[in-house]
Amino acid sequence: MRSTGNHFEDLALAHAQRNGLRLITRNFNCRYGELDLVMREADTIVFLEVRYRRSQSHGGALDSVSASKRERLTRTASLFLQAHPDLARHACRFDVMAISGTQDSPSIDWQRNAFETA
Predict the structure, then answer these.
(1) Which of 69, 75, 84, 86 is 20 to 30 A removed from 32 (C-alpha atoms)?
(2) N- to C-terminal Cα distance for the chain?
């Protein structure tokens, strides 16, 4: 299952880079959770959550980013910024890259600024 996740994370990373974002780090882990991709777009730090769903039968990839998941992402991002104070002065946003379909024929729905922090 992790190899599938890595494949779609690689796909999301390549898509974001083609659209001008630069990778800072991937798979940042702490006690609250993981940040899939931390990227930079101009002077904005982008925390990019990658979600894959083969089908919509149990809700789509975007729907899978629940309120509790958003809270964990926010807390994890806060710890990331504490660990990287040089980046903390920049504006930040949370994007979700929802990928559906198959590995051979993926569909990407990139929601920029997908949610606000409390």
Answers:
(1) 86
(2) 32
Note down the domain range covering 85: 2-115
Residue 20's Cα: distance from chain center in Å? 15
Is the pLDDT assigned to residue 108 strictly greater than 70? Answer: yes
- Residue carrying structure tokens 């990778």: 23
Cα–Cα distance for residue pair 112/94, rounded to 1 Å: 7
The model's pTM is 0.89
CATH of the domain at 27: 3.40.1350.10
Query: How long, in residues, is the chain?
Result: 118
Specify the number of domains making up the chain: 1
- Could you tell me the strand order of the sheet in which 91-101 lies? 22-30, 33-41, 44-53, 91-101, 106-115
Nearest to 70 by CA among 94, 52, 91, 51: 94
- 19-78 confidence digits (pLDDT tens): 999 999 999 999 999 999 999 999 999 999 999 876 555 555 566 788 899 999 999 999
